[in-house]
Structures are given as C-alpha cells and as structure tokens.
Design a protein that fits this description.
Blueprint (H helix, E strand, L loop, with lengths): L15 H21 L18 E2 L1 E2 L5 E4 L8 E4 L5 E7 L2 E6 L10 E2 L4 E3 L6 E3 L5 E3 L8 E2 L1 E4 L2 E4 L1
C-alpha cells in the first residue's frame, strides 16, 4: 500500500485579493501622515535669511512672531514657523501683509513658493501671499488676515 504525502510550504506571497484589499490603506497613508503631523522642535530662531519654501522668524512678546524685515523681500512671501504659523509678505516696497498660515481647506500649513505663491502640501490649494485669496482649490475661503507691524528692523506678526 502506497501512501502519498503532500507537503506544502508556507507561502509569503500575498494573493491578488489581499493586495487589492490593502491598496486603499496604502494610498491614504501619505495623506494621513501629512495632515496629522506637525513639527514643533521649540527652535524658533533663524540665523540666516529665509529662502522660498522655508520657514523663518521667532516668537515675539505677547504671543506673536518676529522676523527681520530683510528676510521678506519685495514681491515674496515667507512662512514663519512656530506654535501659531504665519505667512508674511511684502507685495510692494514697504507694504507688509500677514495671514494665518493654515490652509482653509483642512488646516495644513501652507508653504511659500516662488514670489507670492503659497501652496498647501496636502491637497494642492494655492493662495496669493499678497492678498490671501484662493487661486486654486479645493480651498474656497481665503487665508485669515493677521496683524503685522514694523518694529525697527523687525516685523511683529500676530
């Protein structure tokens, strides 16, 4: 009497059904991470001039933020990092404006692009850094204005 024994090896290769079932979770992971994380190192100083796409500035007395005037060139916007991030811009020589840096779509901090363009890294909304107006959705509301004043060679925002 011959008996046939079949041995199977465990398979670590997922089935097509398992891969397809996992795709929605894998696709949403970068968005969830971008929308749900913030970096708060506590370092609000800046020793070098800000470049487009970076944050600069520091905390001011009274809960606002400070940034040297020289770090906000004419025709550019800069994001000031901190517990309450702001955008400050100089649309025309000597005229400074500021806005809350939270995208009005879902609250992600916008980034400064070329010139006065601000863009949300989460969903691509674009704003005008000189006016706060929406230039491209999904955001539909403009950025909230923030007070800004000049104090010598620094701007105080918030």
């Amino acid at each position: 009497m011959d008996t046939v024994t079949q041995t199977t090896q465990p398979s670590f290769c997922p089935t097509r059904r398992a891969v397809l079932a996992a795709l929605p979770g894998i696709a949403i992971l970068p968005v969830a991470v971008a929308c749900g994380t913030t970096s708060n190192t506590g370092d609000t100083s800046s020793g070098s001039p800000s470049t487009n796409g970076t944050s600069a500035g520091g905390a001011a007395a009274g809960g606002g933020a400070r940034i040297p005037v020289a770090q906000v060139p004419v025709g550019n916007a800069v994001v000031i990092a901190g517990a309450k991030p702001y955008v400050v811009a100089q649309p025309t020589d000597g005229t400074f404006v500021a806005f809350d840096a939270a995208c009005t779509h879902q609250g992600t901090v916008v980034g400064a692009q070329d010139g006065l363009t601000l863009q949300c890294p989460a969903h691509g909304s674009r704003f005008n850094g000189g006016t706060g107006a929406v230039e491209q959705g999904p955001a539909t509301a403009p950025l909230a204005p923030a007070p800004v004043r000049r104090d010598g060679e620094e701007l105080v925002v918030g």
